[in-house]
């Protein structure tokens, strides 16, 4: 009986134990310090050009953590209990993406899942993918607001961050492209998914050619190179004045037409030169330094030449040839593979292959090379590059080193020449310059490393060794088609105090390279004033009226626009961007290219250096003074006659004194004479409608100061004299004031001389007067509204 009771008790105890089951506890929420964000924390800010998927952005801040419990019913023995099995986590995260400005967001990825696609430059996007990682039964998903900033220089601080972090702490991070996840659902794990952004950014044209900046989804390589050369944040910080922008723009146009776009991201410490070299490899180009200007020029190796026009290396200029090698088919390559990062295939590696099947049959096997062009993003461009790279490798090209005389002083990298050398039985061999050694002061030889140009292979003639007649090409110098002689504004003189030097503006004759300026007075012998470049000449394609004196959008000009440059206001004040048009001096800051030969000037300031804003007809010559001019090294007496010659130099020789045409000029001492007043205003305006009694104001100008003072500048230059004002109305003179000093005069007698009422229209002719000489008047016309 006792034993039976024992078994019953034990059975009931075991049932009770089974009904309790294992102890189940609620899951605890993670704290902020438990979170791990995948990021390259030590990596510098990325630099983007074109379109790329930017992974592992820099986490600049995270916080504002809140969690929401995930509860489920859990069976416990014979009963169920609602338990917390996990948490949804919401937080704020600030992610630095890349340098701005002008970044566009196209896609947002979490790990390998795309959560959003579209296009936005600045603003908020909404993501609602709560099941992206498996929902509540998995790792959750993502949802909420992501606010994107394109990196502009005017962007404001994020308001969400200001609220949760502090308005005095959060900055707008101008110039940095970043994104803020605002109280964003990041999933159910303490290790959130890796966030990636697909973004586009296109370096800008220094010449304002926005239509050339984008090539498909890629950036224009020429503008990317210019940015890495000049940008002060991540580039080489080279002054823009040291870069030949005209070559950047001309190459940009070629590359745009060819479809040569690039995309890339610099996400590690890397020199600007290394990035530029990668881009140069893609476009088959080179950066060279112009020996004449010291500027960096961008050049492309293209079939853009006529063989008959190429400079010739032959017995007239070659001292010696060494290391001549014609190559062999046995050493040629018959296959080239190009690896690239495809945008269309989700930014994955792809390969394009080019083969020379004939050469493969000849060699009996595949002999290939592989190149990485990771800034290429399309299969079409990769295939084009593969074919381009295969062409020189699969053809036995000749190469050599040529030592020549100084006649080739202006040769540059990637230039193309013709080689005629009977001892090697070579005639018309088209060679590209791959290296230039200009020697030193003790060595007059120039050494050129040459490789046969693949574009000229079919035109090469290997001679039979017979005798060939050779005629040395000649370029006889001729006088310039047009010569302008003016008295130089004081700022153009290297020595202070010179006000009566002469400036020459010389139009380039055929084959002219430069000119030597020589002068004399009376029976004196000719004096050498230096060697100078020709002045680029343009023509007005539209009439230019006499006013206003400041033009935000200036005239359209035609001519060699590749010789123009962009300037700042401060550079204008340093006598850069100066133009001369039929007696009037002007300045311009920038220009917009309209066609290959026309451009529209911007921010034009007229009536400089004592000239007045005159009307100019269509076709009037416009001289780009800052791009080339001559100037005498000393000054002349007013009233004296000066004789000048310009000895033009060509590739062949320079003109002699006897050959050059003689010009004469009578010095007026323009800079020492009375300059017209500037900033002439009536009731504060330079013309047009006024009300009330007319009050004229002005500023004084003179030619002695070495400065560029704009017509509209509100300051006086040194002047010892007075002002005269004539007042006209309806063709009749109605007032005169003389011997005025100071900076203003009030026309008080107007109403009393007109029956007690003010006139409907007035014309003020304001001139300065000193030492018995009066300046050209500045005319300002005003009118008053007619009472209704």
Helix content: 10-25%
Number of helices: 8
The oligomeric status of these chains comes to single chain
Number of strands: 47
The major β-sheet equals: 7 strands, mixed
Distance between the termini: 130 Å
Beta-strand fraction estimate:
35-45%
Shape: flat
Poorly predicted ranges (pLDDT <50, ≥5 residues)? 18-24, 458-472
Instruction: Round the mean pLDDT to the nearest integer and report it.
Output: 86
**What structural class results from the helix and strand content?**
mainly beta
What this model shows, in words?
With 788 residues, the protein is mainly β. It contains eight helices and 47 strands. Strands 15, 16, 20, 21, 22, 23 and 24 form a seven-stranded mixed sheet that branches. Strand 31 (578-581) and strand 32 (584-587) form a beta hairpin. The protein is flat, with a radius of gyration of 38 Å.
Ordered list of secondary-structure elements with their pairings:
Blueprint: H1 2-20, E1 47-55, E2 58-76, E3 79-99, E4 104-110, E5 113-120, E6 123-129, E7 142-149, H2 159-164, E8 176-187, E9 195-201, E10 214-215, E11 218-219, H3 221-230, H4 245-258, E12 264-266, H5 272-283, E13 285-289, E14 296-300, E15 312-313, E16 318-325, E17 335-342, E18 348-355, H6 357-363, E19 368-372, H7 379-393, E20 399-404, E21 416-421, E22 426-437, E23 446-452, E24 461-462, E25 483-487, E26 502-506, E27 514-520, E28 527-532, E29 537-540, E30 550-558, H8 569-573, E31 578-581, E32 584-587, E33 590-593, E34 598-608, E35 621-624, E36 630-631, E37 641-649, E38 662-666, E39 678-682, E40 688-689, E41 695-699, E42 722-729, E43 732-740, E44 744-746, E45 761-770, E46 773-774, E47 778-783
Parallel strand pairs: 15-21, 17-19, 40-47
Antiparallel strand pairs: 1-9, 1-12, 2-3, 3-8, 4-5, 4-9, 6-7, 7-8, 10-11, 13-14, 16-20, 17-18, 20-23, 21-22, 22-23, 22-24, 25-26, 26-36, 27-28, 27-37, 29-30, 29-35, 30-34, 31-32, 31-35, 32-34, 33-34, 37-38, 39-41, 41-44, 42-43, 42-45, 45-46, 45-47
């Amino acid at each position: 009986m006792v034993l039976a009771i024992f078994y019953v008790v034990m059975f009931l105890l075991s049932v009770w134990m089974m009904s309790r089951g294992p102890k189940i506890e609620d899951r605890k929420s993670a704290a902020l310090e438990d979170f791990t964000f995948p990021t390259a924390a030590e990596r510098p800010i990325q630099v983007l050009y074109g379109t790329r998927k930017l992974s592992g952005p820099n986490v600049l801040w995270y916080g504002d953590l809140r969690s929401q419990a995930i509860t489920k019913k859990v069976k416990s023995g014979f009963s169920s209990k609602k338990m917390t099995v996990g948490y949804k986590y919401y937080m704020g995260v600030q992610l630095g993406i890349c340098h701005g400005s002008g970044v566009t967001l196209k896609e947002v990825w979490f790990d390998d899942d795309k959560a959003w696609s579209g296009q936005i430059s600045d603003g908020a996007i909404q993501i609602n993918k709560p099941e992206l990682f498996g929902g509540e039964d998995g790792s959750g998903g993502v949802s909420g607001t992501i606010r994107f900033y394109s990196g502009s220089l005017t962007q404001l601080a994020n308001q969400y961050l200001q609220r949760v972090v502090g308005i005095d702490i959060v900055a707008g991070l101008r110039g940095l492209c970043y994104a803020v996840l605002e109280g964003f659902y990041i999933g159910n794990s303490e290790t959130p998914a890796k966030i990636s952004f697909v973004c586009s950014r296109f370096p800008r044209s220094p010449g304002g050619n926005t239509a050339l900046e984008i090539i498909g989804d890629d950036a224009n390589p020429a503008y990317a190179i210019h940015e890495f050369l000049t940008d002060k944040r991540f580039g080489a910080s080279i002054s823009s004045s040291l870069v030949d922008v005209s070559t950047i723009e001309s190459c940009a146009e070629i590359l745009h037409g060819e479809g040569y776009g690039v995309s890339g991201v610099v996400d590690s410490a890397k020199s600007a030169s290394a990035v530029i070299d990668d881009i140069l490899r893609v476009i088959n180009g080179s950066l060279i330094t112009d020996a004449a200007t010291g500027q960096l020029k961008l050049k492309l190796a293209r079939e853009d030449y006529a063989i008959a026009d190429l400079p010739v290396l032959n017995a007239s200029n070659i001292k010696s040839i060494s290391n001549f090698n014609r190559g062999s088919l046995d050493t040629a390559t018959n296959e080239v593979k190009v690896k690239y990062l495809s945008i269309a295939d989700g930014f994955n590696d792809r390969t394009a292959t080019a083969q020379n099947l004939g050469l493969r049959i000849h060699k009996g096997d595949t002999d290939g090379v592989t190149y990485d062009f990771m800034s290429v993003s399309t299969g079409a461009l990769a295939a084009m590059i593969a074919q381009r790279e295969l062409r020189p490798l699969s053809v036995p090209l000749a190469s050599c080193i040529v030592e020549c005389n100084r006649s080739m002083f202006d040769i540059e990298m990637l230039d193309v020449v013709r080689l005629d050398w009977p001892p090697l039985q070579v005639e018309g061999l088209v060679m590209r310059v791959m290296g230039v050694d200009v020697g030193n002061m003790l060595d007059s030889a120039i050494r050129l490393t040459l490789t046969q140009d693949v574009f000229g292979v079919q035109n090469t003639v290997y001679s039979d060794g017979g005798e060939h007649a050779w005629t040395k090409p000649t370029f006889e110098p001729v006088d310039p088609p047009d010569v302008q002689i003016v008295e130089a504004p004081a700022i153009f003189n290297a020595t202070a105090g010179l006000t009566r030097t002469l400036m020459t503006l010389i139009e380039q004759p055929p084959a002219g390279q430069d000119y030597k300026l020589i002068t004399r007075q009376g029976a004196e012998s000719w004096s050498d004033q230096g060697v100078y470049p020709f002045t680029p000449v343009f023509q007005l394609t539209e009439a230019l009226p006499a006013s206003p004196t400041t033009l935000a959008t200036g005239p359209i000009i035609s001519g060699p626009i590749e010789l123009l440059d962009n300037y700042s206001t401060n550079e204008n004040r340093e006598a850069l961007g100066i133009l001369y048009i039929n007696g009037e001096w002007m300045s311009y800051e920038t220009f917009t290219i309209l066609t290959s030969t026309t451009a529209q000037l911007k921010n034009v300031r007229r009536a400089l250096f004592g000239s007045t804003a005159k009307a100019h007809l269509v076709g009037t010559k416009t001289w780009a003074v800052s791009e080339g001019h001559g100037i005498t090294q000393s000054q002349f007496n007013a009233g004296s006659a000066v004789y000048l010659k310009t000895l033009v130099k060509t590739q062949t020789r320079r003109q002699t004194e006897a050959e050059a045409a003689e010009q004469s000029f009578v010095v007026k001492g323009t800079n020492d004479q009375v300059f017209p007043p500037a900033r002439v205003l009536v009731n504060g305006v330079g013309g047009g409608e006024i009300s009330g009694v007319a009050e004229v104001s002005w500023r004084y100008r003179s030619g002695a100061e070495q400065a560029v003072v704009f017509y509209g500048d509100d300051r006086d230059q040194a002047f010892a004299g007075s002002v005269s004002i004539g007042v006209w109305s309806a063709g009749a003179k109605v007032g005169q004031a003389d011997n005025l000093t100071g900076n203003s005069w009030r026309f008080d007698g107007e109403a009393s001389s007109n029956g007690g009422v003010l006139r409907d229209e007035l014309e003020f002719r304001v001139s300065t007067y000193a030492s018995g000489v009066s300046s050209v008047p500045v005319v300002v016309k005003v009118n008053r509204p007619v009472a209704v």
